[in-house]
């Protein structure tokens, strides 16, 4: 099943290193060139779902300025799922590219 784009970028952000929630939000926005701006409630709901699916796990917790900061990491299942999605996207892009090449290569003929 295809991943939603926010899920893809959350997993991609965590593939590099464990991150806390705000770090994930910043990484997703950066990786998506600003197209995806996660709100904290949306992110934590997604992290809960991804944890329930075994794709991410709590890495550690620390107190910062009296607040608990949770760091999440990608699990092996998450790495496998992300790699499968990358391959699915590559395959789909290759199919589309092969179909549009002939169209791009020859000039369009406009009716007279």
Automatic annotation (TrEMBL):
It comes from Virgisporangium ochraceum. This is Transcription regulator PadR N-terminal domain-containing protein. Residues 10-82 form the Transcription regulator PadR N-terminal domain. Gene3D superfamilies: Winged helix-like DNA-binding domain superfamily/Winged helix DNA-binding domain. It comes from the Bacteria. Pfam families: PadR (PF03551). InterPro entries: Metal_resp_DNA-bind_regulator (IPR052509), Tscrpt_reg_PadR_N (IPR005149), WH-like_DNA-bd_sf (IPR036388), WH_DNA-bd_sf (IPR036390).
């Amino acid at each position: 099943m295809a991943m939603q784009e926010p899920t893809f970028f959350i997993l991609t952000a965590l593939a590099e290193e464990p991150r806390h929630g705000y770090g994930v939000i910043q990484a997703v926005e950066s990786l998506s060139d600003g197209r995806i701006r996660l709100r904290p409630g949306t992110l934590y709901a997604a992290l809960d779902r991804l944890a329930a699916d075994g794709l991410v796990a709590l890495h550690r917790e620390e107190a910062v300025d009296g607040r608990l900061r949770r760091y999440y990491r990608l699990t092996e299942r998450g790495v496998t799922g992300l790699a499968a999605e990358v391959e699915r996207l590559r395959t789909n892009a290759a199919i589309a590219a092969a179909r549009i090449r002939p169209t791009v290569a020859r000039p369009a003929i406009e009716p007279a």
